[in-house]
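Input sequence (323 aa), recorded before submission:
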Amino acid sequence: MSTPFTNRVAQQGRDELEKLARQRTQPRPPASSPPVLSSALPPVGPQIRPNGQLYQPRLLGELEDLAFLRDARSHREHVLLVGPPGTGKTALSEAAFVQDAVSGQHSGLETIVGSASTEVADFVGTFVQNPHTDAFEWVPGPLLRSIENDVPLLVDEIALIDPRELTVLYALMDGRGELHVTQNPALPPLKVGPNWFVIGACNPEVPGAHLSDALLSRFHHHVEVTTDWDLATDFGVPVDLITVAKNLESRKRQETYEGWIPQLRDALAFAETSRRFGQQFAVAGLLRKCPSQDRREFAAAMKERFGDHAPLSLGTRVPAGRR
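Predicted structure, C-alpha cell format:
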C-alpha cells in the first residue's frame, strides 16, 4: 500500500535515475584507467529497489553484478554472497530482479531471513488457526511461494541457520528440482521452474556462522561483497569518514587491525545524521554503534580526522528554561 513516505522515497529514486541520464549526455574528463565492462552480458543498468532506493550496478570482474545474477539464474547456478553487514548483499539481490516484480504478488524474488531458530516450517509453511473460524489453514512459506511464483529465493543470514534445517534445499539445488512438502501431505510434489534458484547471503565472521560442506558445494558461485566507497562519495558521505574506513580496511589486510569497520549502510546513516543534527552528534553516534570491544581502537582512528569525541549517551535533564 502506498504511503506519503514510500511515494516520496520512490520519487527520490526516480529523480536519481533522471540525474544519471543527464550525466550520461555530458562529456566527462578521460579517466586514467577506466573500468572495463565485458560485452559477454548486456548490462542491466541502475535499478530502483522495492523500498524506493536507487541501486548503482558494480563491477564483478569485468561483468556487471546485476547482469551476472540474472545470468546465473538462467543457468540455475546458485550464488553465495559473503561480506560484512551493510555492504549491499540484500540490495544487490533485490535490484537484480525488481524488474520482474508483479504488483500484489511478489517483488521479483522471495526472501527469508535466517536465525538460529529458523526451521523447515519457516521455509515451506505451516498450518495456522483462523481466529474467526478456529479452523487450521495452510499458509505457504517463502520457499513455496518462490516455487509457485517461479522467482529466486534469497536466504539472508543463511550461515546462522542450523545446517540440518537447510537440507530442505538440497534436492532443489542439486538438479532434482522437486520439493515434497511433508508438513502438508495434501500438496503434490512441487517442481521448480526456469526462473527459480537460490541466493545465499551471510557474514561468515559473525559468531555462530556455519555452512556445511554439502551446502557450500551446491553454490556454483561464491562472491565477496564489499563497500563501494566511490558510491558512498556520490551519496554525500564525508570524505573524512571514507578515509577512516579505507585506512582501517588497509590495516585489516595487513593484519594490524581486527576490529569493526563501518560499511555503506553505516556511512549513509552517518551522512544523514550529520545533515540533520551536525557532525559532532554523528561521530558520537558512530562511536556508540561500534562494538564495545573495538571502540578504543576505532575511536583512535576517528580522532585523527574528527577530533576527540565521547560515544553518544544520555546526559543530564534538559534545563527548565529550554523545555
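Checked by second reader. The chain has a mean pLDDT of 89.
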